[in-house]
Amino acid sequence: MTTAAVIVAAGRGTRAGGEIAKQWQTVAGRRVADWTLDAFRQITEIEHIVVVLHPDDLGRMPDVPCVIGGATRCSSVLAGLQALSGLGVTKVLIHDVARPCISAKLIQQTIDTLDHAQAAAPALVVTDALWRGENDYVTGTQDRAHLYRAQTPQGFDYKAILKAHQAHDGTAADDVEVARAAGIKVAILPGSDDNLKITQASDFARAEKILGSKMDIRLGNGFDVHRFGAGDHVTLCGISVPFDRGLQGHSDADVGMHAVTDAIYGALAQGDIGQHFPPSDPQWKGAASDIFLRHAVDLAAEHGFQIANVDCTLICEQPKIGPHTAQMKDAMAHIIGITANRVSIKATTSERLGFTGREEGIAALATATLIKP
Ligand SMILES: Nc1ccn([C@@H]2O[C@H](COP(=O)(O)OP(=O)(O)OP(=O)(O)O)[C@@H](O)[C@H]2O)c(=O)n1
Ligand SMILES: C[C@](O)(CO)[C@H](O)COP(=O)(O)O
């Protein structure tokens, strides 16, 4: 089974207004499209994601495969489905970019339902009375029995929905309509009130409230040790400190930067430096450690996190760290891309106890706080 997702984002968002289409506007600190994409990226079972864009928007989502959509939602969906051909996709979810509050739970339920149904989609039972109206007056009522409000993601057997779209005349509100026209039976899943589609300008405030309460705060710790060897300086927290010995290691042995890097990986639950840059790999021999830190910082950004602060403690008798901390903070802040007042570098001795007390090496401890707004 190979699962994929098509996120349709080629609309112009005319009803929502604004200077740019609604999917590029910001809600709770991030673009609507980024929230939506992130929700799908969280699902490990989804192996391929394709975003369908308007030709004017190419380049707005550089980190994900994109294709150009068409003038109607249906033609955009077809472009996305065709882009997945040849990848062995069996299940596909089709989702409006304009539904950024979609939960991982609802995405997973849709995928799981496809184990025993050819198609499945979430919907809300209509609970309000329904009227017909004209010129601001009620002209009639409508029986609400058996009525649902359709949502996305709508999930399908890939080959069946591709064939259905290829055979369709192109007019349909959603993919369930296309599927049903092709004789595909669609299972209804309980939708969610939070899974609103941003359609009118007022919907941004509702989405802001829902996404604003989803703030994700992570804490990670890192610890590293390097032993002293021959040399005339040590590299610590991005700067060179003159000393009568050097630190030994596969890279430049910047023990402080390694601890901070591991703290960031830790907060992301993404392993450690050794996993990303194996010491057995000769290309990292003598490498400047900012390569590792920049990788962790980029990984945090890819996962939608900002680094709020880092705090590093160097443990050694010698060299004296105090005179260098301001320069170290600047160097670390520059690499991480935050201001120096969010970087703390401090030092302690171990009261002449243990390997640091015997001046055999330097240890470093670090903490990093990551925030997804
Ligand atoms: N030619 C189109 C039209 C719509 N869509 C996408 O289909 C979804 C349908 O939502 P809708 O609210 O209709 O989006 P827009 O068409 O952008 O909105 P509007 O009708 O207000 O212009 C959106 O994710 C939209 O980007 C698309 O990919 N291609
Ligand atoms: C697919 C859909 O989101 C289901 O509710 C909806 O039909 C698409 O948006 P539109 O407002 O109907 O264009």
From TrEMBL:
<feature type="binding site">
    <location>
        <position position="355"/>
    </location>
    <ligand>
        <name>4-CDP-2-C-methyl-D-erythritol 2-phosphate</name>
    </ligand>
</feature>
<feature type="binding site">
    <location>
        <begin position="224"/>
        <end position="226"/>
    </location>
    <ligand>
        <name>4-CDP-2-C-methyl-D-erythritol 2-phosphate</name>
    </ligand>
</feature>
<feature type="region of interest" description="2-C-methyl-D-erythritol 2,4-cyclodiphosphate synthase">
    <location>
        <begin position="218"/>
        <end position="373"/>
    </location>
</feature>
<feature type="site" description="Transition state stabilizer">
    <location>
        <position position="349"/>
    </location>
</feature>
<feature type="binding site">
    <location>
        <begin position="250"/>
        <end position="251"/>
    </location>
    <ligand>
        <name>4-CDP-2-C-methyl-D-erythritol 2-phosphate</name>
    </ligand>
</feature>
<dbReference type="InterPro" id="IPR034683">
    <property type="entry name" value="IspD/TarI"/>
</dbReference>
<keyword id="KW-0808">Transferase</keyword>
<feature type="region of interest" description="2-C-methyl-D-erythritol 4-phosphate cytidylyltransferase">
    <location>
        <begin position="1"/>
        <end position="217"/>
    </location>
</feature>
<comment type="similarity">
    <text>In the C-terminal section; belongs to the IspF family.</text>
</comment>
<comment type="pathway">
    <text>Isoprenoid biosynthesis; isopentenyl diphosphate biosynthesis via DXP pathway; isopentenyl diphosphate from 1-deoxy-D-xylulose 5-phosphate: step 4/6.</text>
</comment>
<feature type="binding site">
    <location>
        <position position="358"/>
    </location>
    <ligand>
        <name>4-CDP-2-C-methyl-D-erythritol 2-phosphate</name>
    </ligand>
</feature>
<dbReference type="InterPro" id="IPR003526">
    <property type="entry name" value="MECDP_synthase"/>
</dbReference>
<keyword id="KW-0414">Isoprene biosynthesis</keyword>
<dbReference type="Pfam" id="PF02542">
    <property type="entry name" value="YgbB"/>
</dbReference>
<feature type="site" description="Transition state stabilizer">
    <location>
        <position position="250"/>
    </location>
</feature>
<comment type="pathway">
    <text>Isoprenoid biosynthesis; isopentenyl diphosphate biosynthesis via DXP pathway; isopentenyl diphosphate from 1-deoxy-D-xylulose 5-phosphate: step 2/6.</text>
</comment>
<dbReference type="GO" id="GO:0008685">
    <property type="term" value="F:2-C-methyl-D-erythritol 2,4-cyclodiphosphate synthase activity"/>
</dbReference>
<dbReference type="GO" id="GO:0050518">
    <property type="term" value="F:2-C-methyl-D-erythritol 4-phosphate cytidylyltransferase activity"/>
</dbReference>
<feature type="site" description="Transition state stabilizer">
    <location>
        <position position="22"/>
    </location>
</feature>
<feature type="binding site">
    <location>
        <begin position="348"/>
        <end position="351"/>
    </location>
    <ligand>
        <name>4-CDP-2-C-methyl-D-erythritol 2-phosphate</name>
    </ligand>
</feature>
<dbReference type="InterPro" id="IPR018294">
    <property type="entry name" value="ISPD_synthase_CS"/>
</dbReference>
<feature type="binding site">
    <location>
        <position position="258"/>
    </location>
    <ligand>
        <name>a divalent metal cation</name>
    </ligand>
</feature>
<feature type="site" description="Positions MEP for the nucleophilic attack">
    <location>
        <position position="144"/>
    </location>
</feature>
<keyword id="KW-0548">Nucleotidyltransferase</keyword>
<dbReference type="InterPro" id="IPR036571">
    <property type="entry name" value="MECDP_synthase_sf"/>
</dbReference>
<feature type="binding site">
    <location>
        <begin position="272"/>
        <end position="274"/>
    </location>
    <ligand>
        <name>4-CDP-2-C-methyl-D-erythritol 2-phosphate</name>
    </ligand>
</feature>
<keyword id="KW-0479">Metal-binding</keyword>
<dbReference type="InterPro" id="IPR001228">
    <property type="entry name" value="IspD"/>
</dbReference>
<protein>
    <recommendedName>
        <fullName>Bifunctional enzyme IspD/IspF</fullName>
        <ecNumber>2.7.7.60</ecNumber>
        <ecNumber>4.6.1.12</ecNumber>
    </recommendedName>
</protein>
<keyword id="KW-0456">Lyase</keyword>
<feature type="binding site">
    <location>
        <position position="226"/>
    </location>
    <ligand>
        <name>a divalent metal cation</name>
    </ligand>
</feature>
<feature type="domain" description="2-C-methyl-D-erythritol 2,4-cyclodiphosphate synthase">
    <location>
        <begin position="217"/>
        <end position="370"/>
    </location>
</feature>
<keyword id="KW-0511">Multifunctional enzyme</keyword>
<comment type="similarity">
    <text>In the N-terminal section; belongs to the IspD/TarI cytidylyltransferase family. IspD subfamily.</text>
</comment>
<dbReference type="InterPro" id="IPR029044">
    <property type="entry name" value="Nucleotide-diphossugar_trans"/>
</dbReference>
<comment type="function">
    <text>Bifunctional enzyme that catalyzes the formation of 4-diphosphocytidyl-2-C-methyl-D-erythritol from CTP and 2-C-methyl-D-erythritol 4-phosphate (MEP) (IspD), and catalyzes the conversion of 4-diphosphocytidyl-2-C-methyl-D-erythritol 2-phosphate (CDP-ME2P) to 2-C-methyl-D-erythritol 2,4-cyclodiphosphate (ME-CPP) with a corresponding release of cytidine 5-monophosphate (CMP) (IspF).</text>
</comment>
<dbReference type="Pfam" id="PF01128">
    <property type="entry name" value="IspD"/>
</dbReference>
<dbReference type="InterPro" id="IPR026596">
    <property type="entry name" value="IspD/F"/>
</dbReference>
<dbReference type="InterPro" id="IPR020555">
    <property type="entry name" value="MECDP_synthase_CS"/>
</dbReference>
<feature type="site" description="Positions MEP for the nucleophilic attack">
    <location>
        <position position="197"/>
    </location>
</feature>
<feature type="binding site">
    <location>
        <position position="224"/>
    </location>
    <ligand>
        <name>a divalent metal cation</name>
    </ligand>
</feature>
<feature type="site" description="Transition state stabilizer">
    <location>
        <position position="15"/>
    </location>
</feature>
